[in-house]
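Weekly structure sync - notes
Attendees: PM, LS, DV (DV joined late)
Agenda: review two folding runs queued last week.

Item 1: First target. Sequence and C-alpha cells pasted below for the record.
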Amino acid sequence: MGRVQEDGNGPVHGFRLSTVSSSRPTETGTTHEPTGLDLAMKLHYLKVVYIYSAEIARDLTVMHVKAPFFPVFDQFPWTTGRFARHDSRRPYIKCNDCGTRFVESHCNLTVDEWLRLPDRSIDESLVYYKPVGPELTFSPLIYIQMTRFKCGGLALGFSWAHVMGDASSLSHFFNLWSRAFAGEKIYCPKTSDGVRGFQNPNSTGKKPDSVKRVDPVGDLWVAPSYKKMVTYSFNLTVHEIRSHFPAIRDEFEILCGIIWKCIANVRKGESEPVTITIIRSDSDGLKPRSVSNSQVISSVHVDFSVAEANLEEIVKSIGKATDERFGIGEIGESDDGDSDLIVYGARLTFVDMSEVDFYEAKIKKKSPKSVYCNVHGIGDDGAVVVLPAAKEEERVVTVTLPEEEMEKVKRELKKSGLIIGE
C-alpha cells in the first residue's frame, strides 16, 4: 500500500502543521547521549497509528489532544530536542525544547469504512513522515498526525525516530499521554546511563549477522534501498497459528517458521535466506521504564535448506537465537558513532510486537479500535512485524518485501493456510 497523497486526491487531506513542546523550559545545556545501539537504529523510523471511535473522540478538540503531551515531554526532554554533532562527529541531542511537529488532517471516510479496508498497511496514510536531516539542528524527531474521520472518529499517527527508542518505548510514551489525558499526574524516574548498557551473555567473538553497514548517508538519515519495497498486512488468530504445529511452542516462533519457509520457497537457490534476525521486546525491560532502545536483537543461522526442511526443524532453530545487542552496540559506537547501519531488513527480519501494550492507550477508559505499527527504512531482505489486534485472540501480521516477491509470497502464505479468503 502506498501513502495516500497529500495533494487532496486521496481520502486524507487538509494538512495543517503546528508545534508542540514541553510545558516548562529544560535547563540550558542539557544534552542526551545516544548509546551505540541507539545509533545503530538511526536510519529506521517507527510508524504507529491509533484509531478511536466517534463515540469517544467526537468531542475532542486539537487542544484536548495537544495539552497532555506537554507533561509527557517534560519527562523526556530529548524527544523535543534536535540532533547535533560533537567535534568527533558523534551525534547527540541538544535538549533545547524545539518541539514536535503536530499535523492536523481530515479523512473522507468513517472509522468503520476505513477499518473495512482489508490491508491495514493503508494506515500508513495517517502518519506524516519526514526523516531526520539534512539539517540536523532543524529536524523534529517525532511527527504526530491527528486525523478526524467523517463520523467524528479520530486517528493519532506517529512517525518516531527509532534512534530514540523501540516500539515498547513509543507505546510507553503514548500510554503516559493517555494517563495525562485522564488527569493523572505523571512522573518517570530517570534511567541511568549505566542501566542502559547491555551485557554480553553469548559472546562468540564474531561480528553480529543482524546488522549491515551501508554507504555513508551524511546528515540525511535515510536508509538506502536498491529495490522497491511494498507492504501487505493481514489478520489471523492464535488458534490458526497453533493449528500448524502440534507441539507446545511459542506462537511467534511458529509463525516465523511458517513465513520463513514461505519466503524461502520463493527465494530458492543462492538467495534462499538461511540467516534471519529476530527482534523481540526485552522481557526484563528497563527498570524504571523509559524511552530507549532495549529490544532484544538476535540472529538465527541454519545449515540446511529452509525451503526443504520440515516446520519442526525450523521452529527448533528459531528457539536457539543468539542475542547480538552487545555486538551491535559496539558497531554503533565504531567511528565514534558516525557509522551508518541498518538492522531491519539487513537480513530477513521478524519483529515480535505482540506483547507491546498498545491497547492500554485509553481515551475515556476505552481502548483504540485498531492499532497499526510498522518500520520505515527496511532493507532489501524484508521484514515481518507481528502486532496484537483489538481482539485478544488475534494477531496482525505486516509483511514488507521487494515488490517482485510480494505476490509470490502471498501465494505461498495462502498455500500454508495463513491467508484465507483472498
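Item 2: Second target, run right after the first with the same settings.
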Amino acid sequence: MDVKGLAAIVTGGGSGMGATTARALAKAGAKVAVLDINEEGVKRVAEEIGGLGFRCDVTSAEQAEAVMAEAREKHGPARVLVNCAGVAPAKRIVGRNGPMPLEDFRKAVEINLVGSFNMLRLAAAEMLGAEPVNEDGERGLIVNTASIAAGEGQLGQVAYAASKAGVVGMMLPAAREFAKSGVRVMTIAPGLFATPMLLNMPEEVQENLANQVPFPKRFGKEEEFSSLVMHILANPMLNADNIRLDGGMRMQ
C-alpha cells in the first residue's frame, strides 16, 4: 500500500520504535498522528515530522475515541495503525515481599493488550468504512507490537509475557474478520532492542545480553523495526502473521 497522502496513527510515538516508525511513515508521505502518554515527547516528534501530536492513554476508551475523531477530522480516516505503546515490568510472581500485587499484573495487561485492542477496534472501524486505495481492494493495515517473550518469557516477565502473548493471540481472529474488507493485521515480535530500558542497564549486562543474539551480536536498532513496518506496508501478501525480529535469538 502506498501511504502517500494517507492517514497513519502511531501509538507510543513519543520515543523509541514508535517515534522512528512515525518518522518513516512521514518520510513516505503519510499524514501521521502520534499518540503517547508522554506529552513532551509526542509534541517534539509531531513537530519534527509535521504531523499531529496527542497525549493519549491508550487504555482509555474516551481519550482514544476523542483523539481518533480529531485525527480523522484533520487527516481523514486512518489507513495505517502501528501500536507501539507498551510497558515492560519485571517482577516475580512471589518475591521477597510476598505475592506480586495484582495491580502490577493488571497494569501490564491493560496497557500492552487492552490498549492495543482499544486502538485496533477504533482504527479498524475507520478503515472498514473507507474506500479501497488500490486494485487489490486494500483499505488499511494494522501492525501490533508483541515480543519474543510472548512464547519465551523469562523469570520475572510473567505480566509482560502474558500481555504480549495476548497481542499475538488476537491477531489471527482480527485478520480473519477484516480480510473480506481488505484490512490486513500483522504482529511484529522484537527481540532485544536498543530501548532506554536496556541501554540504562550496566555495560556488562548489556554485553552479556547482546552476546546471546546469534547474529548480529548486538541489540536491534529502532530503524530495523520501522523498516519492517514499511516492508509490511509495501507487501500485500503479508497478512495474519507474527514476524520475529530477533537476530535468531531464542531465549533460554
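Discussion on item 2: The domain at 7-245 is CATH 3.40.50.720 (Rossmann fold).
Action: LS to circulate a short write-up before next sync.
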